[in-house]
Design a protein that fits this description.
The protein is α+β, with helices and mostly antiparallel strands and 264 residues long. It is 22% helix and 24% strand. The relative contact order is 0.17.
């Protein structure tokens, strides 16, 4: 049950449809706020497709070009309770962002300068994930604790958790950008098998309209084969009623045959 719900959750997010692995995979940010001149002040470059026990949730982020010096930038993280409906998922992507109180969040913005740089202005935010117990401080200063919240997760801790990441100007404590993405967590056993699908070519059956002469021959042959005694007028009426459509002809034959009197 846990595995099935977790896999269904993963299907909700097209960005996560890549094989699970420890390193981050390509992903598209599900929501990005625009800056004052149209440039995104915070871009999600990639993220861990989904997380299993003992694995970290890794985000690769890139601040947009702006007037805030890089040394003043900080990043905060808010993780919200797992989603239980499609409407909740849509709400998490709305301009207002996820609703409710975060179940895990950074007490204060983490200095971007303290996070591992990747190159091209990007930085790596790697956050260990724990479930329902005191979180152990991470090297980045933040560990996500997926605490239970009212039993809304049918397969807790497996589920889809909205994650809001905000970029701050730490000198003024002003948010200059944010994104909302999702952490997909599954506690499925390590030996869980992936769903495999085999595709094979199949013949295509096209039901086309038969010409009146062919339809008349069909009904006449059927009447003779089953000794129904259909006369020309009856056959003509069946041809007109079914308009030469094979499925309609079968239905008409079945109905007429069932109404025919039993032979002595």
């Amino acid at each position: 049950m846990h595995t099935a719900i977790a896999l269904c959750s993963a299907i909700l997010l097209a960005a996560f449809l890549t094989p699970p692995r420890a390193e981050a995979g390509p992903a598209t940010p599900t929501a990005t706020a625009a800056g004052p001149h149209g440039a995104a002040p915070l871009v999600l470059v990639s993220q861990t497709p989904w997380v299993t026990p003992g694995q970290a949730f890794d985000l690769k982020l890139r601040p947009g070009s702006g007037a805030v010096p890089a040394a003043q930038l900080g990043v905060s993280v808010e993780v919200y309770a797992c989603l239980s409906s499609v409407s909740g998922f849509e709400q998490s992507l709305s301009p207002s962002g996820p609703s409710g109180t975060p179940i895990s969040s950074t007490p204060s913005p983490l200095a971007v300068s303290s996070l591992p740089p990747i190159g091209g202005g990007e930085f790596d935010l790697s956050m260990p994930v724990e479930t329902g117990r005191a979180a152990t401080p991470a090297a980045t200063g933040f560990t996500i604790d997926l605490a239970s919240s009212g039993g809304q997760c049918q397969a807790y801790p497996s589920g889809v958790y909205p994650v809001r990441v905000q970029l701050f100007d730490t000198a003024t404590s002003t948010a200059v950008g944010s994104i909302t993405t999702h952490l997909v967590y599954t506690d499925a056993p390590a030996d869980t098998q992936r769903l495999r699908v085999a595709l094979a070519p199949a013949p295509l059956l096209a039901l086309e309209r038969l010409e009146p002469a062919m339809a008349r021959a069909f009904f006449q042959a059927w009447s003779e084969q089953h000794r129904l005694g259909w006369g020309p007028d009856h056959v003509r009426g069946l041809v007109q009623a079914t308009r030469g459509y094979p499925l309609g002809m079968r239905e008409a034959v079945g109905a007429t045959a069932s109404a025919a009197p039993a032979e002595d």
